[in-house]
Amino acid sequence: MTVAGAARSGIAAAELLARRGAHVTLSETRTDVPDAQPLRRLGVELELGGHRIDTFAASDLVVLSPGVPPGQEAVQAARARGVPVIAEIELASRWLRGRVIAITGTKGKSTTTALTGRMLEASGFKVTVGGNIGTPLSAQVSASTPETLHVVETSSFQLEQIEAFHPWIAVMLNFSSDHLDRHPDLAAYAAAKSRIFENQEPSDWAVINADDPAVLELARRGRARKRLFSPHQKLALGTLVDGGWIVDRHAQADARLVPLDAIHLLGSHLFSDVMAAATVGAIAGATPAAMTSAVDRFRGLEHAMEPVAELGGVRFVNDSKATNVESARRSIESFERDLVLIIGGRFKGGDLSVLRDPLRGRAKAVLAIGEASALVRDALGDVVPVHQASSLEDAIWRAHAIAKPAGVVLLAPACASFDMFRDYAERGRRFKEEVARIARIEGDDDQRPDR
């Protein structure tokens, strides 16, 4: 059997298969895999420096890590020979003993997944949390019991290669254009996302954002029972806001779940994620007290609307996970005025012009970085001053100067990080490190980076 991609998910899949007695080849385009000795001790053969057509075509099964595009020549050769090609989450799900709560959406997956897990844990359930964040699903198999609830963040890259993956509760938070550098078009991206509902039965649950018409349409053909949530509508049934509470509205009565004053997250769009998590908690049987306690202690995830510092009246906010245009739009709309936005990187598709209206009246300037800096200038330059920065560090210093005396410097790139950084997390860490450097040396012009 061949596993393609030696990142977290691929390594976990290779280890799972090897421990189950399979002969495994782990194929990787890089020329080295850190910490490869545990794999070799399990008998996993490492094939580095590229995906070899002969290896894939001769396999009994090919398992794809999320980062490996299914259109690669070696993967296509395997399909042509009739070799099954599946996602890592599909492989893992075949051995899970517990039920799956799968969460997808263009924005907010990680926050909702983490908070859902904390709500369920606070209520006494045995819970594992991971998938596209944290622990890969394949690494959770050994701990899976019939009582385990597996809370799984699922991306379109994972969902497009499932076959029988079957969530008890499937959550779709929102849908907008993203990953068009990987998917051929928006319809293909939508089709991949909607597969989260594909194998559900009438006894399962689909948790759906009632405020997103695209989500309602993608979920329409699913067979599961539908539970709507909305921060804005007065739903007849579902999860809504009423009287300062998140409320679960049944045909018989309303049940108060979480008071709004327990929510401490920056950004109004994250409120919707809390509502989605509370909806899952209500279905699963978490108590309102446990959910409220989890929400009250939750201060968000690193790199997701993360408050970093306030220096001389200027606030710095790290939303490096805002890797698409819609995510950046929601981040921008979380602030009223005196905003200086850092945006750019490797563009994944979408329409940057949707940021024009949110920026108009809110933003003092935009600092454009990376490969997309010219695209940013062309899309936004007639609405707000756009300055092209030579590096992230350069952008931060210049943004700080513009934001004074009492503005906000927001990193919401609307782009992937791969032109400049290993991933969004490295980009976010570099942002925080440079802000810390400003805090140490602010006012000493000799120590500022070249601009």
Q: What's the CATH architecture of the largest domain?
A: 3-Layer(aba) Sandwich
Q: How many separate helices?
A: 16
Low-confidence stretches: none
Specify the structural class.
alpha/beta
Strand percentage: 15-25%
Mean pLDDT: 94
The largest beta-sheet arranges its strands as 7-8-6-9-10-11
Shape: globular
Number of strands: 20
Overall description:
The protein is an alpha/beta fold. The protein has three domains: 2-83, Rossmann fold; 90-297, Mur-like, catalytic domain (UDP-N-acetylmuramoyl-L-alanine:D-glutamate ligase), CATH 3.40.1190.10; 306-440, Protein-Tyrosine Phosphatase, Chain A. It is 32% helix and 21% strand. It contains 16 helices and 20 strands. The strands form four sheets. The protein has a six-stranded parallel beta sheet, sandwiched between helices. The protein has a six-stranded mixed beta sheet with strand order 15-16-20-17-18-19, sandwiched between helices. β12 (238-242) and β13 (245-249) form a beta hairpin. α15 (392-403) crosses α16 (424-441). The model has no long low-confidence stretch (mean pLDDT 94).
